[in-house]
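Are you able to produce any protein sequence you like plus the matching C-alpha cells because I've never seen that pairing?
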Amino acid sequence: MKLSIRSSILSALLLFTILIVSIVYITIRRTATLKDTNEELMYSEEIRYELQQLLLAVLDNETGARGYVITSNESFLEPLYASERTLKSYTSQLEHRIQNPAIKLIFTDSLKPLISKRIVFSRLMIKTKMLHNPDEVLALVASGVGKRYTDSIRHYGVKINALQNSHLQQKRSNNERALRQMNIFLFAMLFSIFFLSVLNFRWIVLYFRKQKQTEEELEEKVQKKTKEVLEGEVRFRKMIEQISDGFFSLDVNWRFTYINANAAQLFKQSNQSVTGKNIWECFPETVGGEIHTAFQQAMSSQKEVFYEGYSTYFKRWTEISIYPATDGLVIYFRDITEKRLAEMEAQRSQEQYKTLIERISDAFIAVDHEFRYTFLNKQAEELIHKKADDLIGKTVWEVFPDAVGSDTFRAFEKAMKEQVYVTNTDHYPALDLWQENHIYPSSDGLSVFIRNITKLKKNEIAARNSEEIRRIIMNSSLDAIICVDNSNNIIFWNNQAESLFGWTFDEIKAKAFHETIIPMAYRRFAEKGILHYLHSRNTESLDRIIETTVVNREGKEFPVEFFALKVLTDNNSFTCAYIRDISNRKELQQQLIRQQKKTAREITATAIDAQEKERNAIGQELHDNINQLLAGTKLLLQMIQSNPQKHTQYLAMCVDAINQVMNENRRIAHEMVTPFLNQETLVDLIYKIANSMLAFVGIDVEVELNNFNEDSLNEKQKLTLYRIAQEQCTNIIKYANASKVIFALESNEMSVRLTISDDGDGMPTKAAKDGIGLKNIASRLSVYNGTMDIITSPGNGFMLSVELQTEDLYQGV
C-alpha cells in the first residue's frame, strides 16, 4: 500500500511538472513569435517609408532637372543635387535592409539600375543646358526618356510595396491561427492540472495516514529494543565484575568510561573517582613509556595491540590486550609478576650452566652492567684475535671504540636497559666480520652468543647483488621486457610489462608467449614464427625494430615497437623481447597531420576571402566611378553620332570623361601592383600610402620613426609590412570615420614593429578579430612567425601593432 501511494504521488508530480513545463515552453515560443511579427511589422514600415522617400527623391530629381532646363533658374539645382544624394543614400540602405529574396531581386536587377539611369539622364540635361544648346535640351525633354525612367521606378516601387504587404499579411494570418491553437491547448492543460491536483491531494491524505500508523509501530519497537539493550548492559557489567582480569574502557579523549574492581585495585583508585577523567592526567608518569605508546598505536591504527612488559610505575609485570572500539578503547590486563619472576629465576639458574660453554662452536662473551668483559671462550678469542686475559675488566666499547653507535651497540644497550632478549646481525668492518648476536639479559649483566656468518653472508650478498642488478636494470627500463625459454614459456616479466599489459608476473609466469599479448587473429602464425626463431642458432637480434600490434588483458589492441634478442649462457639460453608502446606517438602524428590540414585550410580560406574582397573592391570602384563616367560618355557619343555637325561641342566633354576614367584606372592599378622594393625604402612606401589613400580623403597623417633600421628586413618582409599597412588604410577609410592616423616604425636587433593607430569610432575587440581584413593580416604574419596585437573599444579609436622577427625563420617561403 505504501509503495503504491508513493509511486502514485511521484507519477502525479511528474505529470504536473511536464504540464507546467509544456505551458511555459508554448508561452515562450508564442511570445517569441509575436516579437518576431512585431519586428517584421516595424521592418516593413521602415522599408515602405524609405521606398516612399526614394520615389519622392526621384520626382525631385526629375522636377529639378526639368525646372532648370526650362527656366534656367539655378535654384532648381540645389534640390536636384540633394535628391541625388538622397537617392544614393536610400538606395544603399534599401539594398542592405531588404531581406526577402524576391523583393531584393527586383530592387537589384530593375529598380537600382533605373535610378542610376535617371540620375545620369538628369545630369546630361543639365550639362547640355549649361552648354547653351536649347534645341538639344528640348529634344531631350521631348524624348520622354526621363519620364519613362521615373514611371518605371514608380512602377517597381509600388510592386515592391505590394510584395512586402502580402508577406506581412501572411505572417499576421499565421500568428492568429497559432494563437487560437495555443488558447485551446492552454485550456486543456489547465483542466488537466486541476484534475491531477485533486487526485494528488487524495493520494497525499492516504499516504500520511499510513505514514502516521507506521511511525507509531516503529516507536513501539524502539522502546522495546531500548529496554532490551539496557537489560543486556546490566548483565554485561555483572559479568565483567566477576572476571579475575583487570578491565577498563576509554573514550576517544582518553577519559575513563568504566573500570572493574580488579583494575581499580591495581590503580588504587575507586570506580567513581576515575570515571570521566583522562588516564594520562591520572597517571602522568606513564606518558612516553611503552604502555602509553601501545595505547596510542591501538587508537591510531584501530587494530588490536598486545603488550607484555614491566611497569616501573606500578612495579608490576603485566600482559595487556588493547582492543579498539567505535567510541574509544577496551583494555584487558593481567598481573604476571609472579610468573615472570619465576621465569627469571629459572633463567638465572640456566646461566650458571653456561660456564661450560667452552664446548660450543659459537663465540661466547659475558659482560657486567658496565659492559666490562667478565668471560670469553676460546672461540671468541679466535674470532676477535685477542686474548681473554687482555680483555677481562675492560669495557667492550673501550676495546672496540669504532663499534659505538653500531647495530650491535644499540642491541647491547636495549638488552641491558629493557632486560629483554635481543638478536641482531651486524658487520664489523675492522675485522671484515659478519656476526649473528644472541644477547640474553641476566641479573649480572649480559650473556652474548656470537656466530661467525661471514662466509655465508658474503655468498648471500654476492648472489643477491647479481640478481638485484639484473632486476633493477630490467625493471628500470622504460620498455616492457618479456623473456621466454626455448619452449616459448615466459620466464621474466618486468614492471613495465605489468603496467602495459595488465598481468602480474605471477599470473603470466610459464604461459606461452603467443597466447598472451599476440592478437587472436595472428596467434597461429606467431607461434610458428616464434618457435622457428627460438630453435635457430642465430644469437643476434631480429636485425631491426619492427612495428606491430599487441593486445592487453582487457583485449584492447594497440601499436608497439618490438625488438627481440637471444641470450646464451653457459647452462642454457633464453630470448628477451623489448616492447615499447607507441600509441601516444601515433596519436600525436595523427593530430599533427590533422592540424597541418586544418592550418592549410584556414590559410586557403583566408586567401580566398582576401581575393574576394579585392574583387568586390575593384568591382565597386568600376561600378560607382568608371561605369558612371562611361555611361555618361556613351550618351554623349550617341547624341554626336545622331548629328555630328550639331553636337561637336560634346567631344571635349567625352575626352574629359575618358581622362577621368584613365586616371581612376591608374589609381586602382597603382594600389594593386607590387611596388619596386629594391628601389624604394619601406618608409617611402608608407608615405606614398598615406598620401595616395588617406590624405586623398582628408585624413591627417603622421609618421614616427623610433630607432628604425630596415636593413635587416628582406624584400618579402618589407612587402608583408607594406600590404598590411595598405589593408589597414582601406579599413580606416571604410569603417573608422577617423580624422588622424599615426604610423610608428621601430626596430631592435631581433624584430621590427609597425603600429597604425587612428582616432576613429573604434569597435569591440572580439568583432575586430573576426573581420576578413584582419584575418588576412594575421595570415600574412603567420608565414613569417609574426605577431599581431589589437587595442580598441567603441568610441576610443583603433590601434593595430604587428611585429616581425628580423631573422627570417622561413627563408624561401
